[in-house]
UniProtKB/TrEMBL annotation:
Keywords: Acyltransferase, Transferase. Signal peptide: none annotated. The lineage of its organism: Bacteria, Pseudomonadati, Pseudomonadota, Gammaproteobacteria, Alteromonadales. This is GNAT family N-acetyltransferase. It holds the Pfam family Acetyltransf_10. It comes from Fluctibacter corallii. It is an enzyme of class 2 (transferase). Its EC number is 2.3.1.-. SUPFAM superfamilies: Acyl-CoA N-acyltransferases (Nat) (SSF55729). Residues 1-141 form the N-acetyltransferase domain. GO terms for molecular function: acyltransferase activity. Gene3D superfamilies: 3.40.630.30. InterPro entries: Acyl_CoA_acyltransferase, GNAT_dom.
Length: 152
């Protein structure tokens, strides 16, 4: 299936981005809504993936400092192609912004996946909304999208 990548603004597409993030983070992962949405939404660059019918498939954001996050994929679209398309779009934004490094804050189960993509752990494991996480950093020249098994 082909997906269309839209670089969108939070102000004009908040309802579509929120719809996916609420479904995944608030209802599925049980992250408190007031912790899911923050002030970075207004300054971050957002990507929205839609299917051939224009239905929301996935979203993610990258902050001006290069932190990739809020990656939310609707359950029936969780596959390698969607994640790769989303990451390629976010990394393209990072390059356009002149960033040399990007970071993610992943769940502990995701550390190995991100290491296979060129990320390295930075700092200690910490708790965020009751979930243990690890900050990972990657130089854009080290990033590779390798096919690995997704655990979602």
């Amino acid at each position: 299936m082909a997906f269309k990548v839209l670089n969108v603004d939070w102000g004009s597409e908040k309802h579509r981005l929120s719809k996916i993030r609420e479904r995944v983070f608030v209802y599925e992962w049980r992250i408190p809504k007031d912790q899911e949405f923050d002030t970075l939404d207004g300054v971050a660059f957002h990507v929205l993936l839609v299917d051939d019918n224009g239905n929301e498939v996935a979203t993610g954001r990258i902050t001006p400092a290069g932190e990739i996050g809020r990656i939310a994929v609707m359950p029936h679209f969780r596959n390698q192609e969607v994640y790769q398309t989303l990451f390629k779009a976010l990394l393209s934004i990072a390059e356009q912004c002149g960033l040399t490094d990007v970071s993610v804050q992943c769940e502990l189960e995701g550390v190995e996946y991100y290491q296979q993509q060129g990320f390295r752990p930075v700092g200690h494991v910490y708790m965020d909304a009751g979930v243990p996480r690890q900050r990972m950093l990657c130089n854009l020249t080290d990033f590779t999208l390798k096919k690995v098994e997704l655990t979602h």
